[in-house]
Amino acid sequence: MKFVILTGKQCGGGSIVMHYLCKLLEREGYKSSIFYAAAVSDNRLKFLCLWIYKQLWDILVWLYIKLFPNEEKSKSHYSGYIDPPVKGTKRKYLPCVDDDTIVVYPEGVRGNPLHAKYVVRWLLYYQPFSKDEGGYKHTDLVFSYREQFNDLNLNPSGRILKIFHFDNKLYKRTNYGKRHGGVCYFIRKGETRSDLPMHFDGPILDHLKEPEKVRILNECERCYIYDTQTFYASIAALCGCLPIVVVEPGKSRQDYIKPDDYVPGVAYGETEEEVQFAMRTQDEVRQEIQKLLDENEKNIKEFVSTCKAYFFPETAS
Predict the structure, then answer these.
(1) For residue 123, what is the DSSP state?
(2) Which of 71, 140, 205, 217 falls between 20 and 30 A from 180, CA-CA?
(3) Are the beta carbons of 202 and 223 closer than 8 angstroms?
(4) Residue 10: predicted pLDDT
(5) DSSP 3-state assignment of 100?
(6) Please, are residues 149 and 126 in contact by the beta-carbon 8 Å criterion?
(7) What span, in angstroms and rounded, lies between the C-alpha atoms of 285 and 243?
(8) Sheet of 2-7: strands edge to edge?
């Protein structure tokens, strides 16, 4: 049993956990590799053409970075071309997918572009296909990253695969004195919201390099966040900045967090009660992160066991 994990090159949260899944599977003793694909298709000829185009694009980006290193390295859009999101992950340029291979697709991939016999769908966000679109097959094994992202039509038993990668050395508080930065913003997946302001009175951190985000979060008093599911809210709290998730009209904390979830250090809305909760629990954020890190080994073992039982029942113990 081996794994091929399809993902993009950019250093967003989804790509990071896909890379870390690859690394954890290797640690468990299974051959596992990353396959980068910016565009996919079930048509083999079209997919090959898209793959060739992607390789040419990678070469052009690499040349551009070499020719203009200082300018390009400041743009996080190409950060995945400079450094992988998680170091130590293996890459296949065009993987061989045989009857012993499980392919893991994120939720945004329609169909089965690698024509794998065994397919895992990992819902890292809300799945984008309607029931009639046929984005997935009924034989696919579906996991969600969090209960919030699960689709009961696809995953009625509620299988969860939650693994967590975190750089403790980078994401930390360095400013314990007075803050002079005012406010900052994250928009990310909230870019389509109708309630986005026309003007922002502080920096938008979305496309900055990670150390720059951390520096600004250590300067600012508050960070307003329009992506209601981003972990940057907890990172802001970890840096001593008050994160305020801007809730959609008519909604509150309960609309974004399941009853069993505990999200310290983060205010959902700017009510006095929410702000006081976030400030009172800010010191608990590091503890919650460590709990997530401690669960990685158990969660990856459960994932492998479920895959074996589903795809290779004759070998499952």
Answers:
(1) E
(2) 71
(3) no
(4) 63
(5) coil
(6) yes
(7) 12
(8) 32-36, 2-7, 101-106, 118-123, 141-144
Q: Find the angle CA(133)-CA(138)-CA(140) to the nearest 5 degrees.
A: 105
Residue 238 · residue 172 · CB < 8 Å: yes
240 φ/ψ sector (left φ>0, alpha ψ -120 to 50, else beta): left
E strand or H helix at 232, and its extent?
helix 232-238
Pairing outcome for strands 32-36 and 242-245: unpaired
pLDDT at 77: 52
Q: How far apart are CA 292 and CA 315, in angstroms?
A: 30
Q: How many helices (H) and strands (E) does the chain have?
A: 9, 9
> Tokens standing for 178?
């007075």
pLDDT at 81 over 60: no
pLDDT bin (cut points 50, 70, 90) of residue 131 is low
What pLDDT is recorded for position 59?
72
Tell me which of 85 and 257 has the higher pLDDT. 257
